[in-house]
Write the structure tokens for this entry.
Amino acid sequence: MTSIKVQADQPGARINPAMWGIFFEDINFGADGGLYAELVKNRAFAFPDPLMGWMKISPSHARGEIFVRDGGPFAPTNPRFVRLQSEGAAPFGISNEGFRGMGVRKGEAYHFSAHIRGMTGAPALLVQLYGADGSLLDSVSLNGFPANWKRCTATLRPNDTDAKARLALLVEGKGTVDLALVSLFPEKTWKNRPGGLRADMVQMLADLKPGFLRFPGGCIVEGSALERRYQWKNTIGPIEDRQLLINRWNYEFLHRPAPDYFQSFGLGFFEFFQLCEDIGAEPLPILNCGMACQFNSGELVPLDQLDPYIQDALDLIEFANGPVSSAWGAKRAAMGHAEPFHLKMLGIGNEQWGPQYIERLARFTKVLKEEHPEIALVASAGPLPADERFHYLWPKFRELKADIVDEHCYAPPLWFLANAHRYDHYDRNGPKVFFGEYAAQSVAMVSTKNRNNLECALSEAACLTGLERNADVVRMASYAPLFAHVDGWQWTPNLIWTDNLRVYGTPNYYVQQLFSLNRGDVVLPVTLAGVELPAVPGGRLGLATNQTVAEFKDVRVTREGQTLLSSDFANGTPGWSVERGNWSIKDGAYQQADPTSAGLVLAGDVSWNDYTLSLKARKLGGAEGFAIVVRYNGPENHVVWNVGGYQNQFHGIQARLAQQDHLVAQAPGSIETGRWYDVKVELKGAKLDCYLDGKLVQSAEVPPPQVQSLYASAVRDDKAGEIILKVVNPGADISETQIHLAGLTSVASEAKVITLTGASLGAVNSLDHPLAVAPVETTLNIAGPRFDHRFPQYSMTVLRIKTR
Ligand code: AHR
């Protein structure tokens, strides 16, 4: 039987009230076509193809012309307009398809607006909504257009609900009208704000009671090149002044192109701050640090030209917090918010790495700490949770005395299960951690087959118990990405899915909600017994290369005087199997000849450990040295001694787990081309000693991935006087568990039990079954501080126990 002991009388760290937050990025139609409730796509005809999203409507008798013009704008920042010229035989004009259609509801009000001027004749303009099947949902006629631009409005009330409606603008009668900035908004937005946000989507955020809201991303912060970076100053003020920008997710993935994806910035920085205020979240803006996305161009602003970027940060702080008498505070007030937004944190860069980042971060830090010591700065630890870039950055952050470090991880569920103890050994006195982007990937990062299933949600929950237990180090966490439109996504999995009318939370959403709504104030120590599943260090061994031609010979594996393997390759390669690369025997050595491949050959048995492996290896050309693989239990679970790896810059012992490379130890050194090296690796339990030419180069303890049958964390909610125990059972068996709330003599006899579970690990929610996997609340009678509970298979359970 397993047991959980909560030390109720030994409160630990206080939990950041802003611990569980949300990450917003305009990806998957998250803003335009999503949270920003505008229904007209390409409303200003500003896309490079000015009529993208628009279609000519010219029924049989109609005769007319459509012209796209750039001169004579109603606003200098909004130069483009469309001229509709009709001969008047029948209504003639254009229609807009919306964002994969327009979602409209029967009887509700939709406010149309456009800047219009009459050029010839006195035609009317029919403003009409059509359903997906072509039925007319509502029609309004506007007329009397002046020769100068005028903003004209109308209200439509569709006679039916339709998720894929479209808007038609038809000239009736002979004449010519010009149209600019065409818009259609539901009246029912969040807080009924004109031109506001989709109420149902914001409600999903509000229901999370998020501690913070990170905005605007994500890679979108960086841009694929600097000219396409996110610039907050372009996102405030009148909407006609907010210049359109191509969305980087428009073209990022060949396999999910979205050529009609642009950023209108209708949801800009003012709306971001306002949203934070509405839902009680601390604003966490992330700004470009003078680096474009390092997965794309990696373009850098020269250090002597970084000042404008730093100034943007200073100005943003003033925009958020400055008095109305300040230049940027006045702009905030002019947008309707004289009160400050109480900004307390600022992120410098998104997923950056390398010395270039550190140089730029240092400059930002110097100025911002001098001018605004009250603002906590968030630094980026790169895109992966433990690779060499990550390990380069962390010591630099310590030197810079960074406030908070933003770590990211997208990996299969096993990574999250095996990393529930990741933060147990972090430095308690160093920078704090923001686990700022994570999501379990049911298949692989960027796979279109990834699903938001229960398995992923529970693995995240297991890992989050570790974050909560380490709340003194981990101060914030957010799942990513947040939103995805079912017809417009580029990336999966995502926390919340929508179509044009509906929205649903995934099992992952409910995990987030369970942590957030049951945050508590102070951590209580938890000890689990009987939960560790067997994890034995052992596995096959291999010879490997990365972008390098190399050869190996005289391979020997011995254990306690016994030879387990001896390969001089004189008689071929019996016992070896080729996994990757172009391998053959040349002059008595086993050679990998393809300089572009990551070559790997394997030998031995999965049970092998506690042995000495010796061999000779020689690099013949290419970017790196060579690598020895041990404890190979599949492509996603093995250990590598990477000799002259990392572009031949150093040697590293690296554990591969669940699609992530964890650099466990590194040592200086590189590999010379053409020279034979004597290589030796000694394995003892979890320990590896690695020798080159008889000299110990590096050693490391690499425990095998440890997975548990049960995960738990506990907190105390001071105000409610409750102990909150969170327990995750990711396995297929019910867990009969003894629970002991040590240090208490009595507790209330009835506890609240909230359970999130599903029929199988593959269980998902959907638009049609939004609550298939959702928390269910029950009660539990308990006799005292010692009681038993059966934790269902595939479940997360929250127990709330009153102590008075
Ligand atoms: O969340 C999607 C993307 O993943 C983010 O834009 C980026 O920061 C990360 O690589």
Q: What stands out?
A: Residues 428 and 473 are 6 Å apart (CA to CA). The longest strand covers residues 110-121.
